[in-house]
Amino acid sequence: MKNRLAVFTVMLLGLMAAVCLQPVMAQDNTPTNPVALKTPLKSMVELGSVYTNIYDITITVLETVRGVAAMEQLKAADPNVKAPAAGFEYVLARIKFELKGRYVSDTLSFDLGNEPLQWVALSGSDLTEYARVPLTVPKPALAGRVKPGGSMEGWVGFAVAQKDSKPVMVFDPDTGGATGRGKTLFFKLY
Predict the structure, then answer these.
(1) How high is the pLDDT of residue 17?
(2) 124, CA 20 to 30 Å: which among 32, 64, 108, 175?
(3) Burial of 151 (0-12, 13-18, 19+ CB in 10 A)
(4) For residues 16 and 29, which has the higher predicted lDDT (pLDDT)?
(5) Would you call the peptide bond into 138 cis, given omega within 30 degrees of 0 as the criterion?
């Protein structure tokens, strides 16, 4: 009897660990409840202009760099980078984006990072959108085409208020045309 209980307990703990390692689902993801750093967020996008197919995506913010450290990385990527406006500082985020088709016939690619409104920073206090600033981010930049079964890892950059201790990053798959419909997702930049 004790052996059965021990085996059951070990199996239950193993199952709980496996469930905890799965990506977080996007259903509870809101601007006031953004996903934490290093936590995979799973969602979906619809691709195709006539016949749409649903593709699964997983996005993970792997790291963020802010202030002086971000400025040093930006200067290494572009020695002519301008200092941020007074009261602002740069924040960089290294992101992993994964795309998976649900069927063998799912062969469309997703255009990532080439649309300026696909990645946006919001103020953590009142969720207002920060103005976009042109930046040459460290290589690799998170931009290009991702094929089903593939992934891309790279950097995006923003200017945020120095006093903003909890800025939020938004991923909007709807930007860039009708072929990327999906849920808007929110991530911590801290």
Answers:
(1) 47
(2) 175
(3) middle
(4) 29
(5) no
Given a contact cutoff of 8 angstroms between Cβ atoms, the answer to whether 29 and 54 are in contact is no
For 65, list phi and psi in degrees, rounded to 5: -135, 135
Q: How many residues does the chain have?
A: 190
User: Where do runs of H (alpha helix) occur along 57-143?
Assistant: 68-77
Structure tokens belonging to residue 4? 């059965």
Residue 18 φ then ψ, to 5°: -65, -40
Answer whether 0.85 is exceeded by the pTM.
no
DSSP secondary structure string for all residues of 87-153: TEEEEEEEEEEEEEESSTT----EEES-STTSEEEE-TTT-PBPPP----PSSSBS-EEE-TT-EEE
**How much is the average pLDDT of 169-178?**
76
User: Pairing mode, if any, of strands 168-171 and 24-25?
Assistant: unpaired
For the record, the structure tokens of 42 come out as 């799973």
Of 1-10, 19-28, 120-129, 162-171, give the lowest mean pLDDT range.
1-10
Task: Report residue 113 as tokens.
Answer: 């990072």
